[in-house]
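User: Can you predict the 3D structure for this chain?
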Amino acid sequence: MPIRVTIDHYNRVVVGVGDGVLTIPDLVAYGLEMLQAKVVHYGKIIDLAGSEPDFTAAEMAAFAQVLRQTRPDTPRGPLALVIDPKRGDLAKIFVGLEMGGRRAEVFRSIHDARQWLSVEMTRQKSEGDPWKD
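Assistant: Here is the predicted structure, written as C-alpha cells:
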C-alpha cells in the first residue's frame, strides 16, 4: 500500500502515513515524491503504526544504503518514524538505522514524533543548518 503524503510548505514538514502492507517499492515511491517535490530538506514524520512490512531487515538496510548514495550533496531534514510498539518486527528494522548523517528517531506516538521534530528543526535552524529551497 502506498504511503499517503501531506506536504506543509509553510512549516517545512512532510507527513507520510502508511496503511496495510508496506513494500520497498512503496518506500522508493515515497522517496521519489520527496525528490520531485524538492522537500528532501524538510522535517519528516512517517507514521507506519498501521503498516505491515513486506521486506526484511537486510532489504531495508540495502534500501537505506541507496538513500545515502542518492544525492549525497543534498541536505536532508530530520526523520521521525512512528511505529506501533506491539509490532516488534517493524520496529527492529528501523531502530538504529543510520540515515546518512540525518537525525532519525523511532516513536510510539505521532504526538511524541511531532514534539521531537519541532525541537530538532528548531535546533537545526539555530545551528545554521541549510533551510534553503
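The first helix runs from residue 24 to 37. The chain has a mean pLDDT of 81.
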